[in-house]
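Query form — protein Polysaccharide deacetylase family protein

QUESTION: What is the three-dimensional structure of this chain?
INPUT:
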Amino acid sequence: MKYSFLTLITAGVILFASCQSKSQTENATAKDSSAQTSKTATSAGTPVDVSKIKVADAKTILARKQVPILCYHQVRNWKPTDGKVGKDYIVEIQNFKDQMKMLADSGYHTILPDQLYAYLNTGAALPSKPIMLTFDDTDLDQFTIVRPTLDKLGYKAVYFIMTVSIGKKGKFVDYMSKEQIKQLADEGNVIGSHTYDHKNFKKYAGKDWEEQLDKPTKKLEEITGKKMTEFAYPFGLWNAEGIPELKKRGFRMAYQLSTKRDEKDPLFTIRRIIASGYWSPKTLNNSIKNSF
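ANSWER: The structure tokens for Polysaccharide deacetylase family protein are given below.
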């Protein structure tokens, strides 16, 4: 791929963000009747055996209380060239650290996809105040800033990788190398797929399934030595017609943003909210409570 094309792609990702507006929320009225916290609940990084779990029916999954899932992009200080929209997806460094401290001080425990999968399908116990942290687009600051910040708190996260940008230096942002991605995986974080170059999932046809899913999956599995089971939709956009293609390729769960979950395939329309660069830790805390 020519560098000019890469620059165009990366500029588009930053300008339009990698997700839909954070303002969309689903009124999560479903309540889980059984307690989901326990002294035996696993914490992030603790292996969970999901090999024998049978997928529950959609009604059962939808009835369980949703786990808060945050979506981050860039973590860096704002620049004079950053526009109003761009700043929504750029959380400044100290603000990010303050947000993470707020989560820790508020008693939140990070969980990973295995735990979420077990909980949604079987009702397996989770730590008290579970939360999942996700980071999209392979940005280098997720390794240099996010990783040490989370390590200090004992937190783990999910990193959704866009493979076109691995190891690249862009006009607006630099990206993680293969070695850094592997290190994140080796340290107990989860690596997921975020397509090749962020093409809208709703427009896939023909060769797109190979270019946007098959090749990136193979590359990430070669880098990490681990099977890719998690997928994040570019821009948070999805359609029901594409879900069978994800299932065919062995994906177990897929993550959108804050629109309503699909009534037939809730595991492939798991909700997240974007942590806005304009939000203080207090605002973030309120948004978590209101959105989930």
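ADDITIONAL NOTE: The domain at 68-291 is CATH 3.20.20.370 (TIM Barrel).
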